[in-house]
Amino acid sequence: MKVLHTIQDLKAELKAYRNEGKSVGLVPTMGALHAGHASLVERSVRENDVTVVSVFVNPTQFNDKNDLAKYPRTLEKDCELLEEKGATIAFAPSVEEVYPEPDTRVFSYPPTDEVMEGGFRPGHFNGVCQVVSKLFMMVEPDRAYFGEKDFQQIAVIKRMAEDQKFKLEICPCPIVREESGLALSSRNTLLTAEEKDIAVNISKTLFASLDYAKSHSLEETKQWVIDTLNGIDGLEVQYYEIVDGTSLASLKEWEDSEDIVGCITVFCGQIPVRLIDNIRYK
User: Fold this and answer.
1) What's the confidence (pLDDT) of residue 71?
2) Are 278 and 147 contacting, i.e. CB atoms less than 8 angstroms apart?
3) Is 278 in a helix, a strand, or coil?
4) Tens digit of each residue's pLDDT (9 = 90 or more) over 159-204
5) Which pLDDT score is estimated for 66?
6) In the chain, N or C: fewer CB atoms in 10 Å?
7) Judging by DSSP bridges, how do beta strands 235-244 and 2-4 pair with one another?
């Protein structure tokens, strides 16, 4: 596996592969890789001749400077995992390489990018679209792989790819969970062992809500999830929305859609770590 740091080197390397007619898969990451990322890399390796994994903590998608500063950075360890999983190229550029000048492009895809994360993290999805569109232009992949833990992000990226006329396939991949049920996240490394035990209640409550929903209304189910988690010391729900899986519009009744997903964000711990998860009702 090659570790490249400049766009020029990346393009030169990929040109040689393309001249041989090889397919290219892209796995965009912010590093601090875990088994969830590994599953994306493994799928790309299976489905493409060449797999590029970007490792870049993108500053434009953070609306909280403290969150950006404390985001874990573990490039050496990340590269060991990527080599083990069969990646062809690890692309780890500097901020200056990706943004030689400020990116003033504005991406807007209402209502998909305005609700939930879009409402609580102004500018977040614009930053995501900026960096992902840049990566698509740099790599020109045939396929790009994203984890479904970031369910809303995938919906926004699909709209951006369509809007910008990128000729590639967006490949959503299932959430990977710890044995406890906790969704794998780079942010989990910021939790103490005790806080991780508390955080398990997020997925536990979401899975329990599948049974609860069978005999309760959508609104009752939504409130039950919020009340259950807020009743646990060390957890505070920022939002829980039950939405249409395509438009992400909030739903009022189970009959309002054939594609229903519950999306949640919870603060966990004394120095709160922001955790997201989701569950499909149908």
Assistant:
1) 87
2) no
3) strand
4) 999 999 999 999 999 999 999 999 999 899 899 999 999 999 999 9
5) 84
6) C
7) unpaired
**Contacts of the segment 97-105: beta carbons below 8 A, 24+ positions apart:** 97/5, 97/6, 97/7, 98/56, 98/58, 98/131, 98/134, 99/59, 99/60, 103/60, 103/130, 103/134, 105/129, 105/130, 105/133
Q: What's the burial of 130, exposed, middle or buried (CB within 10 Å: 0-12/13-18/19+)?
A: buried
pLDDT in tens, 79-133: 999 999 999 999 999 999 999 999 999 999 999 999 999 999 999 999 999 999 9
Angle, CA of 199, 254 and 205, to the nearest 5°: 15
Q: How far apart are CA 102 and CA 115, in angstroms?
A: 26
Q: Report the CATH fold assignment for 186-276.
A: Pantoate--beta-alanine Ligase; Chain: A,domain 2 (3.30.1300)
Number of H helices, E strands in the chain: 10, 9
Which residue among the candidates 5, 37, 124, 216 is catalytic per the annotation?
37
Look-up of token digits 């490039």: 75
* Tokens describing residue 245: 């899986």
CATH numeric code, 2-173: 3.40.50.620
Tell me what the mean pLDDT of segment 275-279 comes to: 98
> Can 216 be counted among the known catalytic residues?
no
pLDDT score, position 72: 85
d(CA 235, CA 268): 5
